[in-house]
Design goal:
Elements: E1 4-7, H1 13-24, E2 30-33, H2 39-50, E3 54-57, E4 62-65, E5 76-77, H3 82-93, E6 99-102, H4 105-108, H5 113-121, E7 125-129, E8 132-138, E9 146-148, H6 154-165, E10 171-174, H7 182-189, E11 194-197, E12 200-203, E13 214-216, H8 221-233, E14 238-245, H9 252-259, E15 263-272, E16 275-283, E17 287-288, E18 291-292, H10 304-312, E19 314-320, H11 333-343, E20 347-351, E21 354-359, E22 367-368, H12 374-383, E23 392-393, H13 406-413
Parallel strand pairs: 1-14, 2-13, 5-6, 9-10, 17-19, 18-19, 22-23
Antiparallel strand pairs: 2-4, 3-4, 6-8, 7-8, 10-12, 11-12, 14-16, 15-16, 19-21, 20-21
Helix pairs in contact: 1-2, 1-3, 1-7, 2-3, 3-6, 5-6, 8-10, 8-12
This protein binds shikimate-3-phosphate (S3P).
Length: 415
Amino acid sequence: MPIRGNLTFPGDKSISHRALMIGALTDGPCKITNLSTGLDVQSTRQCLEDCGITIETFPEYTVVHGGEFKNPTYDLDCNNSGTTVRLLSGLLTGRGIRANLVGDISLSNRPMNRIVNPLRSMGADIKANIGKLPLELYPNQLQGIQYSMPIPSAQVKSAIIFAALGASSPTIIHEPVPSRDHTERMLQSLGASIHNENGSISINPSKNKLPSFDLNVPGDPSTAAFFATAAAIVPDSEIILKDISRNLTRIGFYKVLEMMGGKIEYMDEKIENGESSGTVIIRKTELHGVTIDGEMIPSLIDEIPLIAILATQAEGTTIIKDAGDLRFKESDRIHAIVTNLNRMGAIITEHENGFAITGRTKLKGCNIQTFGDHRIAMAFTIAGLISDGEVTVDDSNCVNISFPEFHTKLREVVQ
Ligand code: S3P
């Protein structure tokens, strides 16, 4: 059955986390519309509230009342959210807060030294259990550093930027491969002293509060990508994805779909608070294999499970390289993709830092092992639209981490 319709999406998850955290650095009130509805962003909200920040929810928007951060009385529970724990660690060490950060089993197995090391070299007093959660933060005055990012990571970059705002001297971050830049854009739009020149990001600390702001969060391009994939692989499909982020550091998936032969039309582009957004129309076309590597990876890192599904329906071989960090996401996503596509009968070879898929293959229905990972659950539900036989998913509730509306929206567009 074709995929047809006109969809809008809850706000981008990355921008939503940052809007709440940066709102907390103002005197408030900050009115945020179209905040992400996912559980990850609720984790950030709860942690900020536990640190004394008041946040109110109204039917049409959320209001963050900035204020003084307090030491939380409880452990801050980041649940499944890597963005919450990593960004908040930078934010709280920069403000001299005493806090313990904890998370669920998945988060407790993810690497934290990538933030602990640079924050410690700024003077942060952090106790970490073999580079994993829980993290114990103790107050200490930070100083600026010069830091060359060993891996491209917007979470690490943003943690350092937040810490740098509260340091006693300037910080410079060298970012060899650009990663998503929402933190820089939002802070710049509020007049903070932060500049990016050819991948060197300089941050001058400021004791002053940031000015309050209103923000309409653009639709999440990573969640819209599930529907773009559906329209690209199901015969006779056409889908309109309205008001989604068109930030250049986030649209790698859409560029790859075009490289594969996908038909995409862009319209209604606008820029608000330094972030661009617009409407994207995707139609079903014949696809062919491509190689994706190097600098392209960060701009599509969360969409690689979907590129794998597209690759099974593309003529020839698609190769993903330089994506080893996928092994440290909510699950080992390379393993999760390989396991499930093998079950569905795809031709896939696993590599340490990626995989190769040769299409086209008629996929078979099976029970998908999500490993509790929301993006695996949603990507393979989309694969089920073209499978011979039913696809079932072992844990469909995990979609709530980023996109609770996923199943309802999907039902709306399957004609
Ligand atoms: C995110 C950055 C990326 C991405 C994650 C969200 C962010 O992680 O995979 O879903 O909001 O900064 P890394 O910074 O670890 O690459």
